[in-house]
Amino acid sequence: MSNKDLQAIFHGLDVGTVLFNEPLSKHTTWKIGGPADVFVIPSKTEHLQLLAKTCAENKVPWYVIGRGSNLLVRDGGLRGVVIKLADNFADISISGDQLTVQAGRSYVSAANTAIRSGLQGLEFATGIPGTVGGAVMMNAGAHGGETKDVLLSADIVEEDGSIRTLQNRDLQFAYRYSILKDQPRIVVRVTFQLQPGSTEEMQAKVRAWTKRRQTTQPLQLPNCGSVFRNPEGTHAGFLIEQAGLKGTKIGGAQISDLHANFIVNVQKARAVDVLALIDLVQTTIRERNGITLIPEVRIVGED
User: Fold this and answer.
1) Quick one: pLDDT at residue 93?
2) What is the pLDDT of residue 192?
3) Is 90 exceeded by the pLDDT of residue 265?
């Protein structure tokens, strides 16, 4: 479908803020990515329902992004519609031991709200830079904890615009996986089942983790978080470092010399630079260790 046709469909549609040919480099933590044909910032669930229904009726592909972490958009950009759920979808509430959060809220913010409220279980999320919705889609985890451990249910918008509540078991969680990776739907809100805990003890644990991250991860440079999944029994960063690839640079992208499982944007990097480094790492580790490293980062768009 041509750009002109898309503009005819979505211009004036009551789905929130609608932009055309919006550079996705403005919406990813890597500061990389070509334009989206249609870029939508909805403000209520009804907007999401109408978007899903309109896309389905017109056979328009769509993608949901949050804060743009764990995402590499190729230099040619994304065809169709990109839906952004971030501060525009960030309500949060507590009822007893349950925390209910809209999908666009920062996972770090949701975890810190739980901690301040004396609710235990989400401490692991204080170092995960994405949104709650993204965390559910990929079963994000850290420090031995995963989203599946605390998620009770998720409200999602189906492709026909209807709303459905999925329970934990329905999401078929596995390592960095949920069924939402294979059956695209829009996460609207999530409910976590937590437990009472000591705010002081949880904050002390988080401070220690934060201090370690600040000394071992390149947080000052644009990055997407960890690029590769950890293979069973070892760590991707360890394998990459042992292969002598720390500091390797292609174009404006570089394998961090601080943490080898991070690729940083050091000088106006393009997606093609990052993809070349990913390929180099995979080829090297496969030849050296007989292990195929699988990207954790979601790679989308056209060259």
Assistant:
1) 98
2) 98
3) yes
Q: Given 176, 178, 189, 270, which residue is catalytic?
A: 176
Total-model pTM: 0.91
Q: Where are the beta strands (DSSP E) in 103-174?
A: 119-120, 141-142, 145-146, 151-157, 163-167
Phi, psi values for residue 156, rounded to 5°? -130, 155
Q: Could you say which of 69, 106, 226, 256 is catalytic? A: 226
Active site residue 296: yes
Say whether domain 218-300 belongs to CATH 3.60.110.10. no
Amino acid identity of residue 251, one-letter, is G
3-state helix, strand, coil in the chain (%, to 5): 35, 25, 40
Based on the residue annotation, tell me whether 176 is a catalytic residue of this protein.
yes
226 is an active site residue = yes
For domain 88-201, which CATH number applies: 3.40.50.300, 3.30.465.10, 3.40.50.1240, 1.10.569.10? 3.30.465.10
